[in-house]
Amino acid sequence: GAGVSQSPSNKVTEKGKDVELRCDPISGHTALYWYRQSLGQGLEFLIYFQGNSAPDKSGLPSDRFSAERTGGSVSTLTIQRTQQEDSAVYLCASSPRPGNTGELFFGEGSRLTVL
Amino acid sequence: KQEVTQIPAALSVPEGENLVLNCSFTDSAIYNLQWFRQDPGKGLTSLLLIQSSQREQTSGRLNASLDKSSGRSTLYIAASQPGDSATYLCAAPNSGYSTLTFGKGTMLLVSP
To answer: Would you say the C-alpha torsion B63, B64, B70, B72 has a positive or negative sign?
Structure first.
């Protein structure tokens, strides 16, 4: 596709369940980011992938959060044993250049609601 | 760690006005700064990316300036239209890291 694609667009789950969020970046973009946006809060960095390098996981809020990127393309963010405070919009972005040197392109986000 | 502040938090103007949105950052050792637009329930759309070697970047009715020495950037919107209503965010790189720090945004409402 032409842009960053995220799925699902909306996810409602019960507390304690696991969820998986998917991001399909723009073809050829080597950098991929996950951010979280909570109501009334700014964007919070979660994790960064660059090519085949080890990801920067410094933003993950707890060990319930994990992410992987297969084949340098599609990424999956997994939240285990979801809590109500995990409710937020999870945004994925990709960039054609590494680090912060290039323009960021965002997907529409996955809105997660934990009941 | 980089801190980004945007003023004002909200702005309401009548159609046709020129307006300025402000962004300040604490760590001036940046090599670029980006402005984004976010419509309700949507992701972020990149508006302008200013490299540290530039002082201004223009796209249509939008003009962004960057003053590293003072830690400030401004987004100027000329002849505002109701379709410009959205939240505008600026983002600055974190020195030594491959991440961006975002401001909390300015929510703009342009009335017909």
So the answer is: positive
Using CB atoms, which residue from A48, A103, A105 is nearest to B99? Answer: A48
SS3 state at A70: helix
Q: How far apart are CA B63 and CA B56, in angstroms?
A: 7
Residue B42: Cβ-neighbour burial (10 angstroms; 0-12, 13-18, 19+): middle
- The rounded distance, in Å, linking the Cα atoms of B70 and A44 is 25
Higher pLDDT, B29 or B91: B91
Q: Which residue of A has its CA nearest to B89?
A: A42
Q: What percent of chain A has pLDDT over 90?
A: 77
- Chain A interface, best mutation among B38, B95, B100, by max A CB count within 10 A: B100
pLDDT at B108 over 60: yes
Res. A71 pLDDT band, cuts 50 70 90 = confident
β-strand pairing of A75-79 with B10-14: unpaired
Average of per-residue pLDDT values in chain B: 93
What is the DSSP code string of chain B?
A: ---EEEE-SEEEEETT--EEEEEEES----SEEEEEEE-TTS-EEEEEEEETT-SEEEETTEEEEEETTTTEEEEEE-S--GGG-EEEEEEEEPTTSS-EEE---EEEEEE-
